[in-house]
């Protein structure tokens, strides 16, 4: 299926968010304000130094 989509130029639309804004993004999802797939920019995870996600 993915090959078909790629061959026909069909792509998904996303909204990327910074890890620092995850609470706002979640609230927007609950309000149905998120129109596309919501993705967390994992590059911002290292910069945020969240105590739950650091190794």
Q: Strand order of the main beta sheet, please?
A: 1-2
Helix content: 25-40%
Quote the beta fraction.
5-15%
Q: Low-confidence spans: pLDDT under 50, at least 5 residues?
A: none
Derived structural class: alpha+beta
Helix run count: 3
- Gyration radius, rounded: 15 Å
- Shape designation: flat
Let me know the number of strands: 2
Main sheet attributes: strand count, strand direction, barrel closure: 2 strands, parallel
Order of helices and strands: HEHEH
- What distance lies between the first and last C-alpha atoms, to the nearest angstrom? 36 Å
**Could you report the average pLDDT, rounded to the nearest whole number?**
81
Task: Break the fold down into its secondary structure elements and pairings.
Layout: H1 2-7, E1 14-17, H2 22-30, E2 37-40, H3 43-48
Parallel strand pairs: 1-2
């Amino acid at each position: 299926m993915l090959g078909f989509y790629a061959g026909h130029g069909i792509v998904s639309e996303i909204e990327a968010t910074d890890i620092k804004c995850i609470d706002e993004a979640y609230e927007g999802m609950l309000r149905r304000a998120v129109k596309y797939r919501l993705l967390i920019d994992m590059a911002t995870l290292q910069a945020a130094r969240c105590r739950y996600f650091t190794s």
